[in-house]
Structures are given as structure tokens and as C-alpha cells.
């Protein structure tokens, strides 16, 4: 059955006005999964106007009532988790269990944001004289334009919209053109939860740059929150300068994993496989360089290859699938290029390394989960984000050496370390130039954690109370009593 989607503007579902329709393909089969109204600048302007009209009412709503609305959205997402998960798997490819977990995680983010709504306290600051007072009043920044990627097409939406609404902002969201249906399912949840018209608007499009121009030039839009590639993030930061808009940018990553000789190797191999092959490696936090101490590299690589070889590849809708298709053929080509370059320069293939052909895979964009040993810093895979199911294993000799190599990247999102030596863990974690460090398998997913990076991976945090702070201004109230 083919789906059809429309933009959601001012509480109304809108058909194509100046952009016609665009197709969304199922990456497991290459067939058209659905068609969506292609929003253009006119729809983007209408969405911004609707969000601006809705702002005074939404920010003026008492916090417990805003919280109730966010909880209602979470309840709809939870109730419809199975159905939304199927939609997500059809348009994005990930295994159904991962899609369902993502919908439930999206609901968790909305619930967390609902709770934070009640805790926007402001501050009282000691003044310099008996007759004066200083208060800091939290206020929503205003209308927010949010731009999201395709790899986590629902949780990325909730990570932005949840805290923005909690702060009292209204939102115009532009989802990835590859995965608009998950975002539109979120719009349906907002409609069913009876969010006031214009509080959340969703404009799918194939012309992201044109819509961004509208957002950047609209004086009502006071904040732009972006998750996606570093290339596009830099363009948006530059474009934000003209109207001095606030920005949060969650960009690419190139995560190192440090496996020290005192690590529990079996746990480390299982943890690295989990982090690497989740979402078929299409995650900004996905391990890209797995540095293993020379004394244990052979044992570790064997364990990792064994775990990897047993991951079933297939359509995300099929029972038991652990590795679904990549988002499109270009993504598979990138993995192939990284594998080929590494093998040409002397790396050794330990498992995978190919595109499964024929049968169920005939028209989909599949790549087998792959482990390469003997990878070195000069190889392309050690510098560029692969964004696919490729685990490259490198060797190190000393703590100082591996720290320097791990930090030698323009990115700074996530790093992982495995060790049972407490002193080494703390010293290494402190020296890693990354926004998030996982120790012995810690995960970055829960809504109470402030997710985000440093250096070329961007700035801003999503999750925790820090996430809401990015949608607030503090008005400085200076009062003379007499
Ligand atoms: P992308 O930058 O191509 O697209 C992201 C979004 O930007 C999409 O909605 C797209 O339509 C839009 N876009 C594309 N060109 C644009 C332009 N010129 N102007 C305005 N908007 C534009 O990234 P992607 O391929 O969708 O996502 C993968 C990238 O996202 C990876 O680099 C990954 O590391 C990164 N990512 C980062 C995080 C994080 O939290 N740091 C999370 C997920 C993904």
C-alpha cells in the first residue's frame, strides 16, 4: 500500500501548492513507499507565520498545562508505536525492533520535556544596594526552525520539538526528504493530542536550501536547531549571521574506541559490535576507529569478527533482521569505497566486505557488516565518516600515543573506552576532546543525558535540562524599590 503525506501547517493538512509531489523509496526494495506534498517557500512562510501567531498563546499557557499537552503527545506515540515503527522501517530501512525502540525513546523525550516544563525557575541575584533587586526571568526565544536528518527520523524530531515546546517556543520543522513520514506521524500525534494550531508545523520538501532561506530571513524565527552533516551545518551557521539568529548544530562525528589491555575483551567486543552495527552504522556516534592495544588486538578482533558474522542482514520488516539496508545506493557506494581503499593499502578483511546480491537483496541498498584488521591512520576510513556497517580495527602501543591519535580529528562528538583500571579510565576520559565519552559500554541515549559535541561536531546540547536551556533567554530585571 502506498502512503501519501501532506505538510502540517497551522493545524491543517496542506496539499501541494507550488511544489507538486515527491516520492519516498523503501531502501529494502527500491520501490516507492509513498508520495508527499513538496513544500516550497510559500508554505515555509505560511508555517512561520502560523508559528508566530501561536507563540503568545503557547508561551502564556501555564506550565502544567503545557506539560499536559506534551504528555498527551507522548501517550499517542506510545499507543501507536507499532504502526509508526512500520512506517519508519519502510522509509528508513532499520530493523522493526530498532524502529519501535526509537518511537518509544521519542515518547520518553516528550515526557522528559513535559517534566522540565515545571522547572523553568529563573533566578534571584543578590543586588548591590538595599533598595534594589535583580531577577532573571526565563523566556522562550521565540519561533524555532528545526531541521532534522534521516538516520533517526522520529527521535531527532522529539529531541528538538520537546524541549522547544517545554520552553514555550513554537516550531516549524523541516524533516529529511528521505524520511518525511516519521515526522508526519509525529504531526498526527500533535493533532490527536490537540496541540493548539500553529504550535508545531511540519514542512517536508526536496528544496531544503530554499526553505532555509525563508527561515533565516524571517525576523520571527529567533533560533535554528540543526542536526545533520558538518557541511550543511557550516552553511547554516554562516547564513544565521545576517539576522543574528541563535543556533544549535549537532553535526558529524568520527568516534574513536580505545580498548586497553586490561579491558574485559568479550564485553568490549560485544559492546563495540552493538554500538557499531546499530542502525547499520548510520549514527553520528558510530565507532569509526577501533584502537586496540597490540597485546590483545588479535584476540579482540577475532571476538568482534565472530559477533559481526552472526548478524543477519535483511529487510527490516523480517523477523530476526539485525542489519537492514542502508538509506540508499550512494551510502553503500561510500562503504565500498572505504573498504576498497583500506584493502588496497594493506588492511585485512576479517568478515563481510561485500554487497549481498540477488534474491531478497536484488533491489535494496544492502552491505554486509564488515570488520577490517590492520587499518592505519592514512586510510580514508580513519578520516572520513563511513556512516555504514564497517568496523576498522587499528593497533596501538601506549596510552599517550592512542590519546594523541584519537584526538587527531576535526570532529569531537563521541568516544568510547574499555578498561578496568580506574585511574586510566578517568585520566583518559578527561583528555579525550569529545562531547561524550562512554566507559565500558555506557550509552548516550536516555533523555536526561545532554547529547552533543565539540569542535567540528557542533555546539549545543539535546537532552537533560541543558537541552531546554538552549530554547530560553533570561531577561535581566533590574528594579529600584524607591
Ligand atoms: P544532511 O546534512 O545532508 O541533511 C540534514 C538535513 O539538512 C536534512 O533535513 C536535509 O534536507 C537538510 N539540508 C540538506 N542540504 C541543506 C541546505 N543546503 N540547506 C538547509 N538544509 C539542508 O545530513 P544527513 O545525510 O541527513 O545526515 C547524516 C549526517 O548527520 C551525518 O554527518 C551524521 O553524523 C549527522 N548526524 C549528527 C547527529 C548529532 O547529533 N551530532 C545526529 C544524527 C546525524
TrEMBL record:
SUPFAM superfamilies: ALDH-like (SSF53720). It comes from the Bacteria. Keywords: Oxidoreductase. Pfam families: Aldedh (PF00171). One of its GO terms (molecular function) is oxidoreductase activity. InterPro entries: Ald_DH/histidinol_DH (IPR016161), Ald_DH_C (IPR016163), Ald_DH_N (IPR016162), Aldehyde_DH_dom (IPR015590), Aldehyde_DH_Superfamily (IPR050740). The keyword Nucleotide-binding does not apply. The keyword Disulfide bond does not apply. Its EC number is 1.2.1.-. Residues 21-476 form the Aldehyde dehydrogenase domain. This is NAD-dependent succinate-semialdehyde dehydrogenase. It comes from Micromonospora rubida.
Amino acid at each position: 500500500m502506498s502512503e501519501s503525506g501532506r505538510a502540517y501547517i497551522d493545524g491543517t493538512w496542506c496539499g501541494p501548492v507550488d511544489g507538486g509531489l515527491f516520492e519516498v523509496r523503501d531502501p529494502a526494495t527500491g520501490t516507492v513507499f509513498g508520495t508527499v506534498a513538496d513544500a516550497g517557500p510559500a508554505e515555509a512562510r505560511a508555517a512561520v507565520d502560523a508559528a508566530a501567531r501561536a507563540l503568545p498563546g503557547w508561551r502564556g499557557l501555564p506550565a502544567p498545562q503545557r506539560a499536559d499537552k506534551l504528555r498527551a503527545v507522548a501517550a499517542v506515540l506510545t499507543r501507536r508505536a507499532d504502526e509508526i515503527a512500520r512506517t519508519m522501517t519502510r522509509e528508513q530501512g532499520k530493523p522493526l525492533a530498532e524502529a519501535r525502540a526509537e518511537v518509544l525513546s521519542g515518547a520518553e523525550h516528550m515526557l522528559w520535556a513535559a517534566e522540565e516544563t515545571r522547572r523553568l525557575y529563573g533566578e534571584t541575584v543578590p543586588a548591590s544596594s538595599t533598595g534594589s533587586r535583580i531577577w532573571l526571568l526565563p523566556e522562550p526565544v521565540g519561533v524555532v526552525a528545526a531541521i532534522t536528518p534521516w538516520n533517526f527520523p522520529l527521535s531527532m524530531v522529539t529531541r528538538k520539538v520537546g524541549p522547544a515546546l517545554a520552553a514555550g517556543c513554537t516550531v516549524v520543522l523541516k524533516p529529511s526528504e528521505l524520511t518525511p513520514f516519521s515526522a508526519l506521524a509525529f504531526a498526527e500525534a500533535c493533532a490527536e493530542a490537540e496541540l493548539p494550531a500553529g504550535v508545531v508545523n511540519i514542512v517536508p520538501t526536496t528544496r531544503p536550501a530554499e526553505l532555509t532561506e525563508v527561515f533565516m530571513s524571517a525576523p520571527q524565527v529567533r533560533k535554528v536547531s540543526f542536526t545533520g552533516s558538518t557541511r550543511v551545518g557550516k552553511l547554516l551557521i554562516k547564513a544565521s549571521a545576517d539576522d543574528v539568529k541563535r543556533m544549535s548544530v549537532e553535526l558529524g562525528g568520527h568516534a574513536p574506541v580505545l580498548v586497553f589491555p586490561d579491558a574485559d575483551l568479550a564485553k568490549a567486543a560485544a559492546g563495540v559490535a552493538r554500538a557499531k552495527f546499530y542502525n547499520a552504522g548510520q549514527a553520528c556516534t558510530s565507532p569509526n576507529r577501533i584502537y586496540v592495544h597490540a597485546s590483545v588486538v588479535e584476540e579482540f578482533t577475532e571476538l568482534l569478527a565472530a559477533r559481526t558474522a552472526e548478524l543477519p542482514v535483511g529487510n527490516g520488516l523480517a523477523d530476526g533482521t539485525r542489519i537492514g539496508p542502508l538509506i540508499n545506493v550512494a551510502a553503500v557506494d561510500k562503504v565500498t569505497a572505504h573498504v576498497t581503499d583500506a584493502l588496497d593499502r594493506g588492511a585485512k578483511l576479517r568478515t563481510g566486505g561485500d554487497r549481498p546480491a540477488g534474491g531478497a537483496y536484488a533491489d535494496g541498498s544492502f552491505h554486509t557488516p564488515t570488520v577490517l584488521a590492520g587499518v592505519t591512520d592514512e586510510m580514508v576510513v580513519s578520516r572520513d565518516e563511513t556512516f555504514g556497517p564497517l568496523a576498522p580495527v587499528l593497533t596501538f602501543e601506549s596510552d599517550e600515543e592512542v590519546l594523541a591519535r584519537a584526538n587527531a580529528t576535526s570532529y569531537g562528538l563521541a568516544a568510547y573506552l574499555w578498561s578496568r583500571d580506574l585511574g586510566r579510565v578517568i585520566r583518559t576520559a578527561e583528555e579525550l576532546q569529545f562531547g561524550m565519552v562512554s566507559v565500558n559500554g555506557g550509552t548516550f541515549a536516555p533523555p536526561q543525558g545532554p547529547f552533543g559535541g565539540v569542535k567540528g561536531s557542533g555546539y549545543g546540547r539535546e537532552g537533560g535540562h541543558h537541552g531546554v536551556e538552549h530554547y530560553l533567554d533570561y531577561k535581566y530585571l533590574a528594579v529600584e524599590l524607591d
